[in-house]
Amino acid sequence: MARRLVALTERSYQSANKTALITDSHHGKTGADGQDGSYLCELLVGQGYTVHGLVRHHSEVHSQKPSRRMGTGAAVQHHYGDVLDPFSLIKILRLASPDEVYHLAAQSHVGLSFSTSSYTSDVDALGTLRVLEAIVALGMEKRVRFYNACSSEVFGDVKERVQNENTPFNPRSPYAVSKLYSYYTTVNFRDQGVFAVNGILFNHESPRRGMDFVTRKISRAVALIHHGRRCVLTLGNLNSYRDWGHARDYVRGMWLMMQQPEPEDFVLATGETHSVRKFVEEAFRMIGIDIEWRGKGVSEVGVDASTGRLLVQTDPALYRPLDVGYLHGSPQKAKEVLGWKPEITFQQLVREMVMADIRALEDGSDLRAIEGPQL
C-alpha cells in the first residue's frame, strides 16, 4: 500500500503551541536531563512547546541541564517524581496537563541489567504500564499522545540480517525482556484507543552519552590519551556490531511519530552497522593514531601502529553473560511515512564525541565527568 508522506511545513513547526511531558531516567540519563531528553527538550522548545520533565530527587545532577543549555527563560519545568510511584505520576500528569508524553525513563544499561534484573523490570516494564494507567485514570486517554522508548535490543539474537518493524523479537538480556514488555503494553493500550506509539530505536550516541556506555568510554579515553592523561583503554567484546546514529537525529524521529494522523510503531536506524573495533579505530584516527591489532580473543590488544605503544586491551569481565553480536536496522518505513532519515554520519558522530571530550579536558568544563568511575 502506498503510504502518504506527511508534509511538515516551517509554519507548523513554529505554531505547535503544545505541552509535553518527558519522563526521567533511572540510569544512563535517558530522561529529561539525559542525552535523549535534553536533545528532545531543545527540539520541542524550538517548536514552541512548553516542556515538563519528570526527574527523580536523588538522581545525579547532569553537568549540562537542558534548561541551562537553552538559556534563561526556556520553557522547561522540572517536577520531582518517579515511575516507580504511580501517585507521583498522577500528580504530575494532572499538573502538566500535557498534549504529548515522551516516556524515556529506563534503567538503560544492558550490561547492568543482568545484575539488577528485578529493578530493571520494575522500571522499564512496569514503569511504562504505570504511566499509561495514570493517563487513563485521569481520563486523558482521548487527548494525550504517548511515546514509548523501545530498543533494538528486543531483536536480540536475530535470524534476519536486517531488522525492521516485522522482524521477530528474541531478547537476550533482562533489559531487552523488560523493553519487550513495555512494547506490548503500549500496543495493548493503543488497541484500547490510546494514541500510543513505540519507537524501536537502534543505538544512538552523542557527547551527552552516559560515561558508562561503550561509545563514550572510548571517546573520553581517546581524549585522555591525547592529553597524555591515560595509558590504556579497556573494553569487552570488540566484535559486537551495532547500528550507531546520533541522538539529535533520533529525537527528531520521536517527534515526527507523534505528529502522525494515526499511531504506528517505527524503527529508527541508520541502515549501517559497525563493530566496536571500528568505533575504536575511527576515534583514534581523530587524534592521528592508527590502531594495529595484535593477538586473538581475550589476549587481543590494540597498539599505535607507528610506535607500538599499547593503547587498547580487552577484559573478559566486561563481556556480557549473553551478548547480542549483530544489530542492523532498516529505516525504510520511517523514511517513507515520516520523511525521516539520519543527517549525521557515523564518522561525524565519532568525531563530534572525541572532539567534545578533548575540549572538555582543555577547558575543564566537564573534567569530573570525563574522569568519573566506569562499570
UniProtKB/TrEMBL annotation:
Keywords: Lyase. Its cofactor is NADP(+). The keyword Nuclease does not apply. Gene3D superfamilies: NAD(P)-binding Rossmann-like Domain (3.40.50.720), UDP-galactose 4-epimerase, domain 1 (3.90.25.10). SUPFAM superfamilies: NAD(P)-binding Rossmann-fold domains. The keyword Signal does not apply. This is GDP-mannose 4,6-dehydratase.
